[in-house]
Amino acid sequence: MSESLKKVDVFQAIADPTRRDVLRLLASKERSIAEITSNYDMSRTAIVKHLKVLTEAGLVTGQKLGREKVYHLKLEPLTEVKQWLDYYEQFWHNKLSKLKFLVENENEDK
Amino acid sequence: MSESLKKVDVFQAIADPTRRDVLRLLASKERSIAEITSNYDMSRTAIVKHLKVLTEAGLVTGQKLGREKVYHLKLEPLTEVKQWLDYYEQFWHNKLSKLKFLVENENEDK
DNA sequence: ATAATATGACACCTAAGGGTTTCACATTTA
DNA sequence: TAAATGTGAAACCCTTAGGTGTCATATTAT
């Protein structure tokens, strides 16, 4: 038993474009709430809510340093997404290469 | 110009557990709406809505055969997810292998 | 022809998601 | 110590998500 207090599903956490963008921001370096917020055209409160979701999904953690709270990225939960994707990769190589060809060359069955 | 009429983001489409499960069902074989519905404790109408979302994300397609409508899986949109994940894999191998070790062996920094 | 089956199309409900503003409090900085 | 900065927390709003039930219609099966 460990790390299982995730209140938010990682798939749900990454469903929102803003949240994916925040992850991208934190990938380069850790940032304070104010710093993150400065990148978006929305209120700090809204960003904090997104950070809460990301935190509960285990994708970020925040620690207080003085008066600011600095968030950094945590990649572990992405393994779940990767594993989920891996399941479909078996079909990928069998079918997708063909399908992709068909799609790119459009309506073959017309 | 092709396939770009996706009204629903693939990340949003896979955010719902039921929808991920429907994808899993369709991975084994194509199924009619009634057949899909029989696997869940919810109304056909609800399932149809999920199928609509999946369709608009490009993850499934349905074709009418007689009086039933048969859905089958389409994997292409998952490439977007895969690419997104790949971006983070650069950190994965650098940091995650270590992190994973730390996590699995719990609180090292205590 | 009739009955059973499968789906389509609505109207409707409730909770949750994503956003806002406002105010209070803690911590720096001048 | 006074002002500025960064955050926490609450109340509120609107739209959408996910679900329901009902009725009509098309297609099989008896």
UniProtKB/TrEMBL annotation, chains A, B:
The keyword DNA-binding applies. Keywords: DNA-binding. CDD domains: HTH_ARSR. It comes from the Bacteria. GO terms for molecular function: DNA binding; DNA-binding transcription factor activity. Residues 1-93 form the HTH arsR-type domain. The keyword DNA-binding applies. PANTHER family: TRANSCRIPTIONAL REGULATORY PROTEIN (PTHR38600:SF1). This is Transcriptional regulator, ArsR family. It comes from Psychrobacillus psychrotolerans.
